[in-house]
TrEMBL record:
InterPro entries: FAD-dep_OxRdtase (IPR006076), FAD/NAD-bd_sf (IPR036188). Pfam families: DAO. Residues 38-391 form the FAD dependent oxidoreductase domain. GO terms for cellular component: cytoplasm. This is FAD-dependent oxidoreductase. It comes from the Bacteria. Keywords: Oxidoreductase. The keyword Protease does not apply. GO terms for molecular function: oxidoreductase activity.
Length: 436
C-alpha cells in the first residue's frame, strides 16, 4: 500500500488520492504587516473561498486567511459527492420556519448544487464533474423514505430526472446484492473536491481577493471595525466571516460549542480494470446508503474505487484507516478481495446537534458572520452559505439569510473534554436502531 504525493507539493494536505492527482499547484504567502479590506474571511475551505468569490463579484475588497493550505480541511479531502439538499430531516424546523420556510430550505438545497455547476462553468474549473447519484436502501423503511422523497421532490418541481428502483433493477447502478432498492437523481453527482477548491482559489485571486496561507488567526478585536491578528500581521475590516467549521476551536468559544468535530475516512483502490469498474458502478454514479454509519463510494476519473464513511464521534482516529475501512468495502464488493489499497486518509468534518448548516451572525456583533456544521452535505451547502453571506453583507435578499439564522442551534453539553464521548454514546443508540 502506498500514500504517494508529488515531490513538489508540501505534505500538509491529507495524503489522499486528491493531493496526488491535483491538477494545479497554488501557494500563497503568509500574512505579514497590516492589510485593510471591506471583509476579512477566516478559513480557506469551500465556505471561505465561495464567500470571498461572491463578495468580490459584488465589488467588495476581501482578505482571506487560511491557517494551513487552501482546502487543507474537509474541503480538500471529502468523498466528492455533490448531492442535493442542505440538511437532514428539514421537516423538523417547521415549528420555527413554517411550511413555506421548510420548502424554501429544500429549494435552496437544489440551488446549492446549481451554484457549484455555475462556478465550474464560469471559471472553467477542471474537476472531473460527473452527473448521476443513487441513494441505496438496506432496510424496507428506507424504501418508504425514497417514495416520500420522490413525491416531495415532484411537488417542489425538482428540475432533474428522478427514478425509483426496485431490488431487481439495482444491477443497473451497482454490482452488489446488498441493496433492496434505490432512488436515482440525475441532478446530483460527483467530482474531485481538491481540484474544485484550487480552481476556486484561482478564481478568487483573479477577482482581486488577497489570499494568505500559513496564517492562523490568534486573536480577534471586535467592534465597529474588526481587527484580526495573526503571528506576523493583522487585518482591519468592516466585516468578518468565520468559516473554520470543525477547526474553529477556541477562536470563538460561543460558535465552537455548537459544532462537533467528527472523523470521516476514505480509502482508494488501485486503478481497476475497465470491465471491473463497470461491473461495480455501471453508470459511474456516486452512491450512498441510508444508515447512520453510512457508506458512500464512487469511481475516480482514473478508475479507482473511492470508498468512504465510518464517521467517528469519539475524537480518536483509527490506527490503520485501510484496515478499518477495507472490510466495509468488501462487504459491498467481495469481488475486490485482493485489490490493492493505494491511499488512505481522513480528518474532521463539522456536525451540529440538529444537522442543519449554521449560517448567521453573532448576536452581540452584527458585523461578524459565520458558516459551519455541514454534517456531510458540505460540498454543496458551503457554496450556498457563501452566497447567503454575501447577500446579507451586501444587503441583498436578506430574507434567505434570515431563514437560516432563525433556526436555534444547541450547544453541545460537556465542554471540550466530555462533548465527544457524550455524543458518541448518543450516536450508539441510533446505530443500534439501524439494526432493526
Amino acid at each position: 500500500m502506498t500514500n504517494r504525493q508529488p515531490a513538489d507539493r508540501r505534505h500538509d494536505h491529507a495524503p489522499s488520492y486528491y493531493a496526488a492527482s491535483a491538477n494545479r499547484s497554488l501557494e500563497f504567502a503568509p500574512l505579514q504587516g497590516e492589510q485593510q479590506a471591506d471583509v476579512c474571511v477566516v478559513g480557506g475551505g469551500f465556505s471561505g473561498l465561495n464567500t470571498a468569490i461572491e463578495l468580490a463579484e459584488r465589488g467588495f475588497s476581501v482578505v482571506l486567511l487560511e491557517a494551513h493550505r487552501i482546502a487543507w480541511g474537509a474541503s480538500g479531502r471529502n468523498g466528492g459527492q455533490l448531492i442535493r439538499g442542505v440538511g437532514h430531516d428539514v421537516e423538523q424546523f417547521q415549528p420555527v420556519l413554517g411550511s413555506e420556510g421548510v420548502d424554501a430550505l429544500k429549494r435552496m438545497g437544489f440551488e446549492a448544487v446549481d451554484i457549484v455547476r455555475q462556478r465550474i462553468e464560469r471559471y472553467a474549473i477542471d474537476c472531473d464533474l460527473t452527473w448521476g447519484y443513487c441513494d441505496l436502501a438496506t432496510k424496507p423503511r428506507h424504501l418508504d423514505g425514497f417514495d416520500a422523497d420522490l413525491a416531495d421532490l415532484t411537488r417542489l418541481g425538482y428540475p432533474h430526472p428522478l427514478r425509483r428502483l426496485a431490488q431487481n433493477e439495482m444491477g443497473e447502478v451497482i454490482g452488489s446484492d446488498r441493496y433492496l432498492g434505490g432512488l436515482i437523481d440525475m441532478g446530483s453527482g460527483h467530482l474531485h473536491p481538491l481540484n474544485l477548491a484550487l480552481g476556486e482559489a484561482a478564481a478568487a485571486q483573479s477577482l482581486g481577493v488577497r489570499l494568505f496561507e500559513q496564517s492562523a488567526v490568534e486573536r480577534i478585536e471586535y467592534g465597529s471595525k474588526v481587527r484580526v491578528h495573526t503571528a506576523q500581521g493583522s487585518v482591519l475590516a468592516d466585516q468578518l466571516v468565520l468559516a473554520c467549521n470543525a477547526y474553529l476551536q477556541g477562536l470563538n468559544p460561543e460558535l465552537s460549542g455548537k459544532v462537533l468535530p467528527a472523523g470521516s475516512y476514505v480509502i482508494a483502490t488501485e486503478p481497476l480494470p475497465a470491465t471491473l469498474a463497470k461491473e461495480l458502478l455501471p453508470q459511474n454514479m456516486a452512491v450512498c446508503d441510508q444508515r447512520v454509519a453510512l457508506d458512500y463510494f464512487r469511481l475516480s476519473a482514473d478508475g479507482r474505487l473511492l470508498f468512504g464513511g465510518a464517521c467517528h464521534y469519539s475524537g480518536r482516529d483509527p490506527k490503520d484507516i485501510a484496515a478499518y475501512m477495507q472490510p466495509k468495502m468488501l462487504k459491498v464488493f467481495p469481488q475486490l478481495q485482493g485489490t490493492r489499497i493505494d491511499f488512505q486518509w481522513g480528518g474532521m468534518i463539522g456536525i451540529g446537534a440538529n444537522r442543519l448548516p449554521q449560517v448567521g451572525c453573532l448576536p452581540d456583533q452584527p458585523n461578524v458572520y459565520f458558516a459551519q456544521a455541514y454534517a456531510g452535505h458540505g460540498l454543496n451547502a458551503t457554496h450556498l452559505a457563501g452566497r447567503l453571506l454575501a447577500e446579507a453583507i451586501s444587503g441583498q435578499a436578506q430574507g434567505r439569510f434570515d431563514l437560516f439564522a432563525a433556526v436555534p442551534h444547541p450547544t453541545f453539553p460537556g465542554g471540550q473534554r466530555l462533548r465527544s464521548p457524550l455524543l458518541a454514546l448518543g450516536m450508539l443508540w441510533y446505530r443500534l436502531k439501524d439494526l432493526f
